[in-house]
Amino acid sequence: MKKVFIPLVIVGSILANYPALAVKNSEPHKVAGNKNIHDQKKLKVVEDLYAGFFNKHDISVAQRLIVENYKQHNPFVGDGIKPFLDFFSQNFKDNPQFSAKIYRSAVSGDLVYVHVLYKNNPQDRGTASVDIYRVNNQGKITEHWDVNQEVPETSANDNTMF
Asked: What is the 3-state secondary structure (H, E, C) of 54-65?
């Protein structure tokens, strides 16, 4: 009994002093991780990029939010804001109904993670993506990584990708 009780006291003490470690049994949240004001500001930068640039195709939004020497890890887009804008300007021209919907997000330090559905038009099944952005303390995007997967017509399970 003593051997079981001591670990329970230790775990209870840790959870009481560090509530972020406790698991809550509630609905999933849109934002995972620490929700301090700096994290919220960094997430807002990325959300603004999606609302204004990816969904409204407003180039000035990206110009305002992304640094000139932006570092890109996607092998199809060059480093710097100009290659990024050139790539997406052409994409928006080819796909005037292009859209992006953020399903979930998380912030860890200077990194913002978003789970996104990109669609070229409303009929498109789309591409599921996890995009990772580095956001500096001035509220500018400095770096980007992504992992993309086409949404298949059929699935081996009943779960959706979102």
From this structure: HCCCCHHHHHHH
Which has the closest alpha carbon to 91: 55, 139, 123, 49?
A: 55
Nearest CA-CA partner of 48 in 119, 141, 129 = 141
The answer to whether the pTM exceeds 0.85 is no
Residues constituting the chain: 162
Cα 34–109–33 angle (5° rounding)?
Answer: 20
For residue 9 the two structure tokens come to 């006291």
Would you write out the chain's pLDDT as a tens digit for each of its 162 residues?
A: 444 434 433 334 433 443 443 333 333 334 455 468 889 999 999 999 999 999 999 999 999 999 999 999 999 999 999 999 999 999 999 999 999 999 999 999 999 999 999 999 999 999 999 999 999 999 999 999 999 999 999 999 999 999
Give residue 80's region: left, alpha or beta (phi > 0; psi -120 to 50).
left
Residue where the block lists tokens 């990584």: 145
Distance CA 70, CA 141 (A): 7
Q: Which amino acid is at 155?
A: S
- For 5, the token pair is 């009780």
State the maximum Cα–Cα separation within the chain, in Å, rounded to a whole number.
70
Is the CB of residue 120 less than 8 Å from the CB of residue 98? yes
